[in-house]
Amino acid sequence: MKELPAQPLPAWRRAVLKVGSNLLAADGGGLTDRYAAALAGFIAASHAQGRQVVLVSSGAVAAGRALLRARDERGNSLVARQALAALGQAPMIALWQSLSARPVAQVLLTHDDLRHRRRYLNARATLRELLALDVLPVINENDTVAVDELKLGDNDNLAAIVAALVDADLLLIASDVDALYNADPRLDPSALPIAQVDEITPQIVAMAGGSGSAVGTGGMRTKLEAAAKAAAAGIATALFRGSDADTLQALAQERLRGTLIRAPASRMQARKYWLRHAPAAPGRIEVDAGAAQALAGGRASLLPGGVTGTTGEFHRGDLVEIVDPAGRAVARGLSQYGVAEVRRLAGHHSREITALLGYSYGGEVVHRDDMATLVAAEDKS
User: Fold this and answer.
1) Mean per-residue pLDDT for 46-53?
2) Which option is the CATH number for 7-269: 3.40.1160.10, 3.40.50.360, 3.90.1170.50, 3.30.720.120?
């Protein structure tokens, strides 16, 4: 099979790295650091360069099955796989902690956590704080309480959702395949690797087969689905062989030996477009002239001190309009607090939030990363 030459990676500051079960499961069952050590080395090298990596790791079911030495047929039902996932989470986290000089934090998510706006914001805030604390988040689906079949919650797609959740610049998918091919290389010796994909079309999807491993739930098709989700959020995806030391060394040097799936727009462009055009809640946050001017610059968060009042109704996590004293909309964003909470916080300092509410979701009413401006700064002078 033809090898791909290394190509430049897109510039990135924060990435989500998805590691498949086939890179963690030993031949006789259980977990091994045979390939995980090099992947952990890439994470450490990236951290030394001032970058952040969020890890989405498979392997819990495989680890649980090895601990019980259960037969395959027993582990095929949903309830059995849920039990095995619960059993295997501890050794999976222990593996990554043994390979990391930094603290490792386990974060278990369900699709409900990511669909439900308040829980989405809570997960987002937690991951932001973990990264700020210089901790390596290791994410997996909470299979123990999942109500869908595990294949519907495969970690390729979960990684794409997490990439959007943490505002990543790049999605890295490590597997036992070195690239996307124009045919199944296991069946067709003349199959050729594809270096770059500008758009995931039906023809591209048709090139993908099923799962290539007995221990995983995803194959190339789910990786393309994940890449499509990431692209919609303005995030490029890199597919590469995680078992190849040279590939990982090149990756640490910002060179990809694999397939790069581009995004049609930048992450910020995609997010800001959504914030500007998605349906907003029937409520508004009113701000003073100083806050309106600061928000128009596009670099400021909305703090409680700049809020003068609210109209209508909205809940924590809703998309709301922010209006100046003249009633003109200057920005739209996701509110960290509900309407009653914003009213109580109006005009106060961020440090008073806990005293006023008894709790805090953060010092901003709307964080600048969750906001799109509608009026340019020069228009507010």
Assistant:
1) 96
2) 3.40.1160.10
- CATH homologous superfamily of 278-380 equals PUA domain (2.30.130.10)
**Of 114, 102, 101, 96, which Cα lies nearest the Cα of 55?**
96
Q: What is the dihedral of CA 356, 359, 361, 364, to 10 degrees?
A: 20
Model pLDDT, residue 153: 55
Band (pLDDT 50/70/90 cuts) for residue 344 is very high
| CA 207 remoteness from chain centre | 25
How much is the pTM?
Answer: 0.78
Using alpha carbons, list the distances in angstroms from residue 170 to 12, 163, 256, 365.
6, 7, 12, 28
Q: Give the mean pLDDT of 119-129.
A: 88
pLDDT band of residue 150 (cuts 50, 70, 90) is very low
Specify the residue for token string 């498949």.
20
Domain spans of the chain?
7-269, 278-380
CA gap 268, 149 in Å, rounded:
33
Nearest Cα to 255, choosing from 9, 5, 3?
Answer: 9
Scanning 153-201, the segments in alpha helix (DSSP H) are 155-165
Task: Please report, in angstroms and rounded to a whole number, the separation of the first and last CA atoms in the chain.
Answer: 62
Q: Over the stretch 330-339, which tens digit does the pLDDT of each residue have?
A: 999 999 999 9
- Please state, in angstroms and rounded to a whole number, the distance separating the CA atoms of residues 295 and 30: 52
Collapsing DSSP to helix, strand or coil, 323 comes out as strand
Tens-digit pLDDT profile for residues 310-324: 999 999 989 999 999
Kindly report the backbone phi and psi dihedral angles of residue 285, in degrees, each rounded to the nearest multiple of 5, phi listed first. Answer: -110, 125
Whole-angstrom Cα Rg for the chain: 23
Q: Are 99 and 33 in contact (CB under 8 A)?
A: yes
Residue with tokens 């770059």: 196
